[in-house]
Design a protein that fits this description.
This protein has 690 residues and is of the alpha+beta class. 27% of the residues lie in helices and 31% in strands. The strands form 8 sheets. A 9-stranded mixed β-sheet has the order 1-18-17-20-13-12-21-15-16. Strands 3-4-2-5-6-10-7 form a 7-stranded mixed β-sheet, sandwiched between helices. Strands 27, 32, 33, 34 and 35 form a 5-stranded antiparallel β-sheet that branches. The chain is elongated and about 110 Å long.
Amino acid sequence: MAKETGTAPAPRPAAKVRNVALVGHAGSGKTTLAEALLVATGALPRAGRIEDGTTSLDNEEVEVRQQRSVSLGVATIEHDDHRITLLDTPGSPDFVGELRAGLRAADAALFVVSAVNGVDAATVQLWEECAAVGLPRAVVISQLDRPRADVDEAVRMCQLMLGEGVFPLHLVQRGSDGAPTGLVSLLEPHVELADADRLRGELIEGIIGESEDETLMDRYLGGEELVVADLIADLETAVARGHFHPILAVAPLTGVGIPELLDLLVSAFPCPMEHGCPPVTTPDGGKAPSLSCDPDGPLVAEVVKTTTDPYVGRVSLVRVFSGTLRPDLPVHVSGHGMSDRGHPDHDVDERIGALSSPLGATLRPVPACPAGDICAVARLSSAETGDTLSSPEDPRLMKPWDLPTPQVPVALEAASRADEDRLATALARLVAEDPTVRLERRPDTNQLLLWCVGEAHAEVLLDRLRTRHGVAVNTVPVRVPMVETLAAPARVTGRLVKQSGGHGQYAIVVVEAAPGEPGTGVVFEQKIVGGTVPSQYHGSVEKGIRAQVEKGVNGDRPIVDVHFTLVDGKAHSVDSSDAAFQAAGALAVREAASAAGTRVLEPWCEVEVVVPAEYVGAVMSDLSSRRARVTGSDADPERDLTHVRAEVPEVELLTYASALRSVTHGTGGFTRRPLGYEPAPPSVITAVPA
């Protein structure tokens, strides 16, 4: 539960603001590092422990239970007269939406790498994504006091796998027992440790290579001893440009490296003015002037996270890019570009509620939130994650950040009638909070599907339905919609003759039915000669045929791709009617299916898989095991990625997201689109219920 308490760090000019996203693989120590930073700056009296469920940033019940982050944690602290907002992102690829939100709100990324496990492929992929958008990056080697920790090997792996511009800033000092006791700066001369001179030389050359002072390199190569203060000033320039990436080592549990990291954040990380603002348009897509980080400029802010608390209500985490947010300020809420995910475009005017500075679940009141800063806004009833806040007189819209398309469907049913009444409201809140979620009522199966990024994502969403929203749901197997078509042509008669007293029913139709080309649907035409079936009943026959093919004749599999031709029939002057000929048309469909037999068809999808080149072989092998047809591939050598195109049965895609993640170590992704229907093998027909 969100709580309002405590005193927040005072707002600062943008030059003294740092917004830093902590990113890295699950288990690398991001939350523990954030906890140590909170204690070191006095924001917390003592550090919580993940094992005890007492950390300030992992406060959801599911996070405490699973002992891992599943949502973006935010805390604002003070150091050296600077205001630092830490955005602790989940490490699991299932919660990539929370990661993307953290990167959108941040001006730099701090990659946390375990000294025990080193760099994994997913971290390298994320590093390259940040590089593609020019986001400044630095590296923290954490857990250096753990058994089997190898800082030197972790640094070597970072330099090897993350590319150019990665340099350590310090060497680790150790006591007689081998435990880390402190750091020694390589910027200071005469460090008497192994490899110090070589590492210092590489570090200085990397820094001054980005310096605006073109004489520094000549002075350094000429043997002149450079002033450390000058190097630190150039370090900030080098990091802000996104070409130089310092490495720092920390042991959060003992505090080693924490003071140096705080100093690095304020001295070397870019402020919001250096990172720039995302482009904006008007809500209708028209041109709008570019933004700058100016507290007196036009108001443009973005909702980067939304939560719903049963006591506080809806809380929106907002990054202000231009202008200043103040309590009771009227704003225009605009959300566009997410309608394909179940987030309809919307534009509405609201009024800002109370502003707070977050410290995990604790909300500390603030009087204003100027450009460059991040705050929590209470009770924006219509705002969803990704929405833009701006002036009602001059509304703006930011383009949504890139998000993966959810590919794991979960079929839901309310556990009771009472839960059914609350389910729609709860699901709407989940969708508003998480833009990686898509909700769909599938018309061909009538199942309610919650589309998720992965199985762990689905588990968390179901947990939130139960615990946060108090709705009990059952999950049922996802049904893949099978259809049928005729196996051969047939000429059949649909006969309805009932004349046992009173007004009777009379309709006889002769229909020729034949399989059509895939994708042609159900086609009806009439070739009546001599008026054997009066023209006013032709539409009735067609209506009866179409109603029957939608219901199917075996279970609830509809019939597709059949050409029906009405060629003959009989009518009665008194007993024939619209209803009688509809029934005769339906009977003709059943007779055709009985006479010609049917073939069961399953849906296929066109799939594009994007994976690092080293995993293409494993992906091809897995696709082959899923009855897929690989239709082509394209290499992207600049990013070392390969795009594999294939046609895959939809039933095989139900488990493909987790399988792809397994064979590519979390680095692969895919998209799909419906392709059509093809004959299903007997094993699939018996496995999938009609």
